[in-house]
Design a protein that fits this description.
The chain is an all-alpha fold and 452 residues long. It is globular, with a radius of gyration of 21 Å.
């Protein structure tokens, strides 16, 4: 069943079916973040505490640069779920979009190589190589999101889960290998770039194969790529460099994309501003705070993975005149167990956990663990609700996100680099924001009910 041609198709019924769709993405997100935790534990021992803090600062830069990728996901899903016409049109449109994104990546890479050194100096990084690598990795992730959006719009949740697992495995292999080889922070950052390139190549293959296949052949072709499928995927990748005519245009989707860029940029700031500020204001405390931050913010990445299920479900249901509250509750239910585990560990065993996982060098910020964990629970709920609102085409909440990001930047800056004060300031902002998100969700559904 292809929903791009059948927007009136009924939603997948029942909680069990929803969990069967969302579950693999949640598990893939947990596994990928488990791999990230393994990388964190190993690198915390391979690098000096200050070097580890610098690496965490660079990873924060990666997520800020990669923010438009989530907006691209929204734009692709919204465009395809509004599609009218043949499946061939979706495949050709996806190839054209990929071509444009590839050219944009090439231009961006040239710009990074020109301005990377002075920008790295502003962040206190004497070596621009690591900065350039993570910025380019973030840009590759944006390109990757074109194909992940195509997979989401096709409801290929298990294939998307495999791509998430590939990303986590590749990051683990490259980052640990380069760190163990003594290449330092810059080498580890280069490992992130290589991992994203491998993941993007896989996503291009399976997304192109899914939309070019016909009817029931979709799953078989996606799961068991033959030589012909591999050749078609390679031609599609190389074809990104050839000019082709655009397929379809939708002003509403362009406005959705612009709103999503701003909204998710604000989310990225909310997620990473504390790490970036501490890395600049208190470099000696950055390593210990990084251990707390990595442990807490893993939950946000699980929320992003679960949102890969919620976004297309909300867009499809809303266009058909239905709400997607059941799917929203399924996504929150999938997030509940890891959120509870995080809060329990932060409340009951902060110092023992940090000492066992990261070593005794990283326990000085243990007091920040619980408030930061609670802040990330709030942010995770905000991320899920935001993706729902973007999926249904709601743009007003962008104002609240931008305001919260600005408020968070001011609040953590006034903490003067103190870990616990920084985490408490972050928690206050995130708590206010999640209340605003729930209020906006209720307002949107009241408006829909009155209109209906």
């Amino acid at each position: 069943m292809v929903l791009a041609e059948r927007p009136e198709a009924p939603p997948r019924p029942g909680w069990r079916a929803g969990l069967w769709d969302a579950g693999p993405l949640a598990l893939a997100g947990i596994a990928a973040n488990g791999a990230s935790l393994l990388v964190t534990l190993v690198l915390a021992r391979l690098l000096a505490a200050r070097g580890y803090g610098a690496l965490n600062q660079l990873i924060g830069v990666f997520f800020v640069v990669a923010t438009p990728g989530s907006a691209v996901l929204v734009g692709v899903v919204r465009r395809v779920t509004r599609w009218s016409g043949s499946l061939d049109g979706v495949a050709r449109w996806g190839a054209e979009l990929h071509r444009r994104a590839t050219w944009a990546l090439a231009v961006f890479a040239a710009l990074v190589l020109i301005v990377g050194s002075p920008v790295a100096s502003l962040l206190g990084r004497p070596d621009a190589l690591g900065f350039d690598a993570v910025v380019l990795a973030g840009a590759v992730w944006v390109l990757l999101c074109v194909d992940r959006g195509l997979l989401q719009a096709h409801r290929e949740y298990r294939t998307l889960s495999k791509n998430l697992l590939l990303e986590g495995g590749a990051r683990t292999a490259f980052m640990i290998s380069f760190g163990a080889a003594g290449l330092g922070v810059s080498g580890v950052a280069a490992g992130v770039l290589l991992a994203e390139l491998c993941t993007a190549a896989h996503a291009r293959l399976v997304a192109d194969g899914a939309w070019r296949a016909e009817g029931g052949a979709v799953a078989a072709r996606t799961r068991r790529p033959s030589r012909a499928a591999l050749a078609a995927g390679l031609r599609s990748w190389l074809g990104a460099w050839r000019r082709a005519r655009p397929y379809g245009s939708d002003g509403a989707v362009r406005r959705d994309l612009a709103a999503a860029v701003v909204a998710l940029a604000a989310v990225a700031v909310l997620q990473n501003v504390d790490v970036i500020v501490i890395g600049r204001e208190a470099p000696r405390a950055a390593g210990a705070y990084a251990a707390v931050s990595v442990s807490s913010k893993a939950l946000v990445f699980v929320a992003v993975a679960v949102a890969g299920y919620l976004l297309p479900e909300a867009a499809i249901s809303w266009r058909a005149g239905r709400h997607a509250l059941r799917q929203l509750f399924v996504a929150l239910a999938a997030l509940a167990a890891p959120a509870l585990a995080l809060v329990v560990v932060a409340a009951a065993a902060a110092r023992p956990f940090l000492s066992a996982a990261f070593s005794g060098r990283y326990v000085s910020a243990a007091g920040a663990f619980l408030p930061l964990a609670l802040a990330m629970v709030c942010l995770s709920v905000t991320v899920v609700v935001t993706m729902y609102l973007l999926g249904v085409g709601e743009r007003l909440f962008v104002v609240a996100l931008v305001g919260a990001a600005a408020l968070a930047a001011v609040a953590v800056a006034h903490a003067n680099g103190a870990p616990r004060a920084t985490a408490l300031a972050d928690l206050c902002v995130q708590g206010l924001l999640v209340c605003a998100a729930v209020g906006e969700l209720a307002r949107v559904h009241r408006s829909r009910s009155r209109a209906g």
